[in-house]
Amino acid sequence: MAHKRLQAYLTYYQEELEKAYTSCFNKLEIPGNLKQSMLYSLDAGGKRLRPILLFASYEAYGQDVQKAMSSAIALEMIHTYSLIHDDLPAMDDDDYRRGMLTNHKKFDEATAILAGDALLTYSFELILNDPLLTADEKVTLTRELTACSGPKGMVGGQILDMEAEKQSVSLEAMEEIHALKTGELIRFAIFAGAYLANATEEQVRYLEKYAYYLGLIFQVQDDILDVSGEEEKLGKRVGSDELNEKSTYPKLLGLEGAIAQKEKYVQQAYENLKLAGAEDSLLKALTDYFSERDH
Amino acid sequence: MAHKRLQAYLTYYQEELEKAYTSCFNKLEIPGNLKQSMLYSLDAGGKRLRPILLFASYEAYGQDVQKAMSSAIALEMIHTYSLIHDDLPAMDDDDYRRGMLTNHKKFDEATAILAGDALLTYSFELILNDPLLTADEKVTLTRELTACSGPKGMVGGQILDMEAEKQSVSLEAMEEIHALKTGELIRFAIFAGAYLANATEEQVRYLEKYAYYLGLIFQVQDDILDVSGEEEKLGKRVGSDELNEKSTYPKLLGLEGAIAQKEKYVQQAYENLKLAGAEDSLLKALTDYFSERDH
């Protein structure tokens, strides 16, 4: 697919998502300071990759993504809450993200903790209140979302990641951490889109494998950019992983080895995409986009 | 009701709840450190008042509380997560709770933040996976629970409470803060029990009013105990509200005035309990218990 068409797609869905969540927040009657803090970090969001994957997965099998909108917003809210908590002094202690002050720097730590809690809780509420979804769909989506984001998923991965810091871990252990910490939300994106568009169970199974490799592609490229990227494009310092003594693909495999590993993941992703009958969908172009991104 | 029968009831349901959540955690495959941290604070729990209110509300209209168990555990987990985050250095900065080290003191701040996040997320998952509930029941329960605990409920109340600190607020403003910060989870307890036991919509409406007053009774008694309680029974320092310059009932109304205000709330609670057809239930005895507790 031409780069231009993908870029137009990304821009279109970024704007659709932002319009949709802004409309939700306009109707939400909550304390002003809390709303500002939640919206500050949502608005500071980057490329909206998770929602866009969800839309693309939906469009591989169905039409009219409105049915997937509440899940996409919920997913972006959960991603945002995890960044707010990750940036806290007790965690990564970051003052800036994407060139803007982190939530606890813009507001204060207590507000940032509560804004994260509120985004997490409200994300489920959004899906549960969506008039376009049946009760069964609501249950399936929220159940998957809790599993992907909670102790068995993202939060579990964050704990493992903390434990793995300052020690070298094997490639397998590192893959497990990434699969939980970043992969599970990507899996939800791919699952939710296909599920809502009535993909078959077999298609969903292959797509979930695809999502697993896509998550790893995302992570290995992140590690590669941390070694060889341009600070201006990244909006953060190059070499911060080295500084934090984190286990990364380049450290375990060398830069060339990391790039070769990424290629293996890309082939696996393609393969499963084909088996899911979605090789002609936007997911193919997004796979390349993930693999080749420079920020 | 005789004090002894209430005490036996409390003990029985405390144990049932603890058995049930321990069984859930035994089956839960998550990183060991995360599980320990989640369980540490759950196990440090006190009287399990919220789950017990849920069971009592259920028993006012139905039998076999097993159907209400997942909601009761979820509610206790959300209460526990809120305490873990409240105790953090950036919030209340408490080293001890109920005579035990707080979560971030026993583990570390990062683990405590993540344990809170995990308890919150897992609470919804428990309800969504409960085989005793229909899809409609799951949707109703989780939707109410997100509303009660999120930005429109408890978390909103915590933000208002922080904003009200170090300034004197009116009785009305203080009531609004309490209604959100502590009242909404109590409302969920009462709602969920009656709803699951198939109480009529009218009964539920009156019960929710009852829950509103019960929450205020809980809070005014908390404030009264902070002035006149015994440290040993409370497990915390008497006079800490004064120290923290918090607006309290005794400060706004004097100790006598606070006791009179509590009596008004008790009468309102009785009245709505009667209108809900539940004046002969355990909720009556629990109202008195809330009103007269010494710790």
Automatic annotation (TrEMBL), chains A, B:
One of its GO terms (biological process) is terpenoid biosynthetic process. InterPro entries: Isoprenoid_synthase_dom_sf (IPR008949), Polyprenyl_synt (IPR000092), Polyprenyl_synt_CS (IPR033749), Prenyl_diphosphate_synthase (IPR053378). GO terms for molecular function: (2E,6E)-farnesyl diphosphate synthase activity; metal ion binding. The keyword Magnesium applies. It holds the Pfam family polyprenyl_synt. SUPFAM superfamilies: Terpenoid synthases (SSF48576). The keyword NADP does not apply. Its cofactor is Mg(2+). GO terms for cellular component: cytoplasm. Keywords: Isoprene biosynthesis, Magnesium, Metal-binding, Transferase. It catalyses: isopentenyl diphosphate + (2E)-geranyl diphosphate = (2E,6E)-farnesyl diphosphate + diphosphate. It is an enzyme of class 2 (transferase). PANTHER family: FARNESYL DIPHOSPHATE SYNTHASE (PTHR43281:SF1). This is Farnesyl diphosphate synthase. It comes from Oceanobacillus oncorhynchi. The lineage of its organism: Bacteria, Bacillati, Bacillota, Bacilli, Bacillales.
